[in-house]
Design goal:
Phosphorylase Kinase, domain 1; two-stranded antiparallel ribbon; 2 domains; globular; six-stranded mixed beta sheet
Length: about 300
């Protein structure tokens, strides 16, 4: 596991968010506690938080808005801005749950948050929690898979092994910090410009392994582990299952099947998946990773793959 220097990171004053013994923010904050420097407004020069110029919006959804911004204090570097609208202090606390568990994490294949602040618009009661992070012009893994499928350009076996090594390394690092992601899917994985590096992001459903919320149904159906669907308490293997689904999607350039519990515990179905992998020209050692409903995805397992060239 390699780490990256995160010397620029700035967070909302942690005194705003009291925490339980597990370290998660739980209490409501009072707006009077915020210092003037915590709040940001658009200056007359058009700068957000006195340094960022909003260039263009690249995504909207229930989560908020994502835009490209230019950092005027750092060589006009292009970054991504995620704005989560918040009507009141309770909503700010909820939004902070995405930031709180990962505020000190550093890994080459995890999206690093560079700055977090609350943006208040003058004359408007509502505010937004702003998260500044790297901008990945290569898009996300879902888009890359779609492009490869469109041109029928399959991932080479060495690419697959390299990508999965990166993702597994990042997920295992999360697990050493007693955290589970719970929503691993291609659209939450970002691709570097040269398509050599993957970075896991979107930490809104991250929870501590010992959390009571580690037995609630969360995630995206196509990638959810069987134990989550049947309302059992789950742990690290839920993330590994999701990675297995991503792995299979990269091999097949699409994931047409919904991975229901019965299908994935059926040996005949596992054999069908293995045969599909071999049909696409991949090696027996790569196909052998599909041994059970957890896909046997581990770093040691990937290292045993004899890459077919």
């Amino acid at each position: 596991m390699n780490t990256t220097n995160n010397d620029e990171i700035e967070f909302v004053d942690e005194t705003l968010l009291e925490s339980t013994s597990s370290g998660s923010p739980t209490t409501t904050i009072s707006s009077s506690i915020f210092s003037d420097s915590t709040f940001s407004s658009m200056s007359q020069s058009g700068l957000l938080n006195n340094r960022y110029i909003v260039k263009q919006t690249i995504g909207r959804g229930s989560f908020g808005v994502v835009s490209i911004v230019v950092d005027t204090k750092h060589d006009d570097t292009e970054l991504a801005l995620k704005q989560i609208p918040c009507e009141d202090d309770n909503e700010i606390n909820k939004a902070m749950q995405e930031v709180w568990p990962i505020r000190f994490l550093q890994h080459d294949n995890l999206v690093q948050y560079k700055s977090v602040f609350v943006h208040a618009v003058q004359g408007v009661m509502s505010r937004s929690l702003c998260i500044i992070m790297p901008y990945y012009s290569g898009g996300d893994l879902h888009q890359l898979i779609q492009t490869r499928n469109e041109y029928q350009q399959r991932f080479s076996e060495s690419e697959l092994v390299n990508y999965m090594n990166q993702l597994l390394s990042a997920v295992e690092y999360l697990h050493t910090k007693r955290l589970i992601h719970r929503d691993l899917k291609p659209s939450n994985i970002y691709v570097s410009d040269n398509e050599e590096t993957l970075n896991i992001g979107d930490f809104g459903l991250v929870r501590e392994l010992d959390s009571s919320q580690a037995n609630t149904v969360a995630g995206t159906l196509r990638y959810i582990a069987p134990e989550i669907l049947v309302h059992k308490k789950y742990g690290e293997k839920a993330d590994l299952f999701s990675l297995g689904c991503i792995f299979l999607e990269m091999i097949c350039l699409g994931l047409d099947r919904i991975m229901y519990v019965v299908a994935l515990t059926n040996p005949n179905y596992q054999l069908e998946i293995k045969q599909e992998i071999l049909t696409h020209g991949y090696s027996e050692s790569l196909a052998s990773l599909v041994r059970d409903h957890n896909f046997n995805l581990t770093l040691s397992g990937l290292r045993n793959v004899r890459v077919c060239t």
